[in-house]
Amino acid sequence: EIKKKKLTAKYDVASCGLTANEGDGISPSSRAALAYLDIPWHKHKAKKFKDEMPQKVDLVVCMTREHKARFTATNSFTVGEITGRGDVPDPYGYPVEAYIKVAKYLCECVEPILDAAGYLREKKNEKK
């Protein structure tokens, strides 16, 4: 979505998992859902979340409240906290349709997440 909106110069995004196997590719179901939605995926490799990451970024977006509860960074919020729409359901183990539904949900959340990141960046710059 950031590439489509030509905002790559303004936002640097990384995806990390709390229990990811570093270097793994995405699952076949994820690949199928992204292909269905015409979203490129071929370069993605799993990265494991590291404790020092929140201090280096403007915003950490967690999929669920349980994920967020695992660390205490003040710049971390759940998708639901940002959008008011609730946690992102984990489609693991479900049919491809569940992955498509989650991918669509996340695409719909991009705008409010970018707004939140911009707001936090401005607040951080005001403190300097």
Low-confidence stretches: none
Proportion of residues in β-strands: under 5%
Give the mean pLDDT: 89
What's the main sheet like?
2 strands, parallel
Number of helices: 4
Task: Briefly note the structural class of the backbone.
Answer: mainly alpha
Shape: globular
Helical residues, percent = 25-40%
- Report strand order across the widest sheet: 1-2
Total beta-strand segments = 2
Write the layout of secondary structure elements.
Elements: H1 28-36, E1 60-62, H2 65-68, E2 76-78, H3 79-83, H4 96-127
Parallel strand pairs: 1-2
Helix pairs in contact: 1-4
In summary, what is this structure?
The protein has helices at residues 28-36, 65-68, 79-83, 96-127; strands at 60-62, 76-78.
Can you walk me through this structure?
The protein is 39% helix and 5% strand. It contains 4 helices and 2 strands. It has a two-stranded parallel sheet with strand order 1-2. The longest helix has 32 residues, at 96-127. The N and C termini lie far apart (30 Å). The model has no long low-confidence stretch (mean pLDDT 89).
List keywords for this structure.
4 helices; mainly alpha; globular; 128 residues; two-stranded parallel sheet
